[in-house]
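Entry 14. Structure prediction run on the chain below.
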Amino acid sequence: MAASAEELLKEWEEEDRELRELRRRSADWKYIESLPPRVREAVELYIETGDIWLAAKLAGLTVDEFNEIRIKAGILW
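Output returned:
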C-alpha cells in the first residue's frame, strides 16, 4: 500500500533533520568562522537548509565557487 502524504512528509522531515546533523558535525567550524561575514552566513544557511543554490546566491558566488568552499569547510552533502 502506498504511503500517505502525511507519512511521506514525516519521512522527508526526518531525512532533512539527519542531513542537517551530518552537515553540522562534519563542518570545520574554525574555517567557517574565518570566512568573510557574507560567505560565512551563506555557509551557515547551507548547513541548516542544504540549499546550495540559495547559499551561493547569498554569498555572491557561483554554485561551483560555493561548492569549493563547502568542500574546504568539510561539509558533507
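Residues 17-72 form one domain.
Filed with the rest of this week's runs.
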